Amino acid sequence: MKRYSTIVMIMILAFAMILSACGNNNTVEPATPAEPEKAAEKAPEVKEEEPAPPAELTGNLEIWTFDDGGTKVLADAFMALHPNVKINITNPGWNELPANLQTTIAAGSGAPDVAYIEGSMFGRFANTEGLEDLLQPPYDAGRYKHEFSEGNWDRWLSLDGTKLIGMPWDMPPQVTFYRPDLIEAAGYPSDPAELGQFLQNPDNVIELAQALKAQDVFAFEFNKTPLDLATGGTGFFDRDLKYLRNTDEFAQHLDLSKTVKQLGLGMEQSAVWSDEGKALTSTGKIAMLFYGPWYSGQLEGLGEDQLGKWKVTSLPFGHINGNGGSTMVIPSQGKNKELAWAFVEWSLASMEGNEVWIGNGGNPGYMSSWESPKFQEVRFKLLGDQPATLIYAELMKSITKSWVPWSFNGDAGTIWDEKINEALEKNMDSKAALQQIEDDITKAVSVDIEKLKVQLGK
What we know:
The chain is α/β, with parallel strands linked by helices. It has 2 domains: 59-172 and 324-387, D-Maltodextrin-Binding Protein, domain 2 (3-Layer(aba) Sandwich); 176-320 and 402-456, Periplasmic binding protein-like II (D-Maltodextrin-Binding Protein, domain 2, 3-Layer(aba) Sandwich), CATH 3.40.190.10. The protein has 19 helices and 8 strands. The protein has a 5-stranded mixed beta sheet with strand order 2-1-3-8-4, sandwiched between helices. It has a 3-stranded antiparallel beta sheet with strand order 6-5-7. Helix 9 (225-231) runs antiparallel to helix 10 and helix 17 (409-426) packs antiparallel against helix 18 (430-444). The radius of gyration is 30 Å and the shape is globular. It starts with a helix and ends with a helix.
């Protein structure tokens, strides 16, 4: 009994010492570390097992695309890495692809494993079940968010902003294609950086346009081009369904377009998509055009005499816009989602996949790939020796705005174009015209908006 009491007393004292050591005003002397030899004796080294190599990808993948050639290049490179993978590529057609995908989603069967969606078509799917949320396991695409510009990431989110429906791909920056020889002939600087800075001031732009007109050269494709530049990064409604195009900035750009019309500075012909426009462009009758890098191919198509005659710089008026771009989606009914994600991830979010695409003329949105020599050393025949991709990269990383892909954007756009043309023809007060357009668009899409507010809990 006495021995038992002694043991209890020792335990009590030990417990008290522990409590004392945990007090705020006391410190505990660190334990003396064991000598290496003794530590080794007490804790024998345990050899870590090497992680098992990842399982080799295998299976069949069905891809729907609107770009046979580019997709085949990616697919062939992917299959070379994974010999047990077979990829079948189908091109239903530009308009047919999204329509067919909608049909298969509604039917519950028949969809591919991966589908390409062009940006202008994405609104059909932004509020639809049937496509995988790539933020969720096993995809966890959120770990790549820092690799894409804010505008390029946000444009592929669901309408409520909680799901990533498409993996970001490219977001070509809108740039100024210009003829240095025509700019110089009018008496203005043709260096890309110098001209880009000069064009930031609206008064400078109108001054240059008038000087070009004196040389029988147009500065603008259309009278409403200055206003179009303001719409490049601004759709009709934001994610809270607030109307966006009735602001002082839009009124100022509409005023600029009215000035262009009054002074006859717009060509009023599509530079490459109309026969008359092609003839004017080919013979040096337009000095500036505002499109994404993909437009190089359109100008090259006018003939070899265009090669080396053009350069690019930033947009006028301080605008930084995207112009085009696409995504890859994974339908939920796909038969091999693991393989589908492996292809999408490798194609769009790896250096190796992006370099394959760069080699095929692509302009990726994956920012790490911009450090690749393959990207930086790209040269375009149209632009001579200009390192245009460095300009593109600088602009792409700064793109913060993108249209919210509301399904009614097309209807709103029809009203916008009609009413803007009317305002230009009648020289209407810009603020009054924009207010009337807001009223007309809001009324036309009011039923859709109310339905969406209910669906999205707004």
